[in-house]
Design the sequence.
């Protein structure tokens, strides 16, 4: 039975291969910790070419395991990252891996700038 007294709701979402009905989805939304919304969702992104300690701290609200050493490494690494190579409005769908020297290669270079080895990996 659902909260309206009818039959259980039908599946409305499939997330990571798991089906969830509307009543369960609503219950999970109501149970979502307000602190997560306030500290993670609402602040929005910081400057495009900077990573800050506060941004890293926000990831902990969604259970990231970034250590203080890793946080410090990411902040230092961001200073020399090739941010300008990838336009702020770039879309992943436009990054064709078969076109040499274009968006895909530039995005890959940005990723590899912060790829392992980093502290704790």
Sequence:
């Amino acid at each position: 039975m659902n909260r309206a007294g009818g039959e259980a709701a039908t599946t409305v979402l499939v997330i990571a291969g798991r089906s969830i009905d509307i009543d369960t989805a609503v219950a999970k939304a109501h149970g979502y910790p307000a602190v997560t919304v306030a500290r993670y969702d609402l602040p929005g992104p910081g400057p495009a070419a900077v990573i800050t300690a506060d941004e890293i701290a926000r990831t902990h609200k969604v259970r990231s395991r970034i250590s203080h050493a890793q946080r410090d490494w990411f902040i230092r690494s961001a200073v020399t990252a090739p941010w300008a190579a990838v336009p702020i409005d770039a879309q992943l769908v436009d990054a064709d891996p078969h076109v040499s020297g274009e968006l895909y290669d530039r995005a890959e270079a940005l990723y590899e700038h912060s790829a392992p080895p980093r502290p704790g990996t």
Remarks:
- The beta strands are 11-15, 18-21.
- The two ends are 48 Å apart (CA to CA).
